[in-house]
Prior knowledge:
The protein is of the alpha+beta class. It has four helices and seven strands, in the order αββαααβββββ. The strands form two sheets. It has a four-stranded mixed β-sheet with strand order 1-2-6-7, with no helix packed on it. A three-stranded antiparallel β-sheet has the order 3-4-5, covered by helices on one side.
Amino acid sequence: YDVVLKIIQAQNNIPNLPKRLKLLAGDGLYGDKILQKSFEGLILAPGWFEKEENGKEKEFTKKASARWSGQISWDTATSYDATKAFIQAISMSENPNRETVLQNLKSVQLEPKDTSGDELNFSKGERKQKSVIVKLVGGKRCPPGEQFCFELVSH
C-alpha cells in the first residue's frame, strides 16, 4: 500500500505529465484502505469478485453478507470454496487420508450454486477459473453512498 501511494504521489508531483502510469497490483491491495481518490484507476487481480459480469451481485455475496453482517472479501469466498472442495474430497473415500484426499481433489467438481458463485474444478492441482481483474472507479458507477468502488474489467 505505502509503495503504491508513493508512486502515485510522485506522479502527481511531476508537472505537465502527459499520461499517468497505469498501475496493476495483486490481491494484497484489494480492500477498503485504497477506496480513495488517489488510487482511482488502479487495476487489481483478486482471486474472486462479488459481482457477476453483468454487474449483479452474486447469490453467495448476498447470503454471506446477510449471515456475517458485512462485506465479503475475495479471501472469504475462496476459503469457502476450498472448504467445500475438501469436504467433497474427504467424502469420496471410506477411509480418507492425506493421499486419498489429495487424489480426490483432482476430480472435485462443484456447480456455481454450491460455491461462492463460480464453477469449481481443478487441473494439475490448480483451480481452473477465469482470471478476475477489477478497477477502482468513482462517481455514479458506485452504489449509493459510496464514492469509490471496484468494477469488474471485462477481458
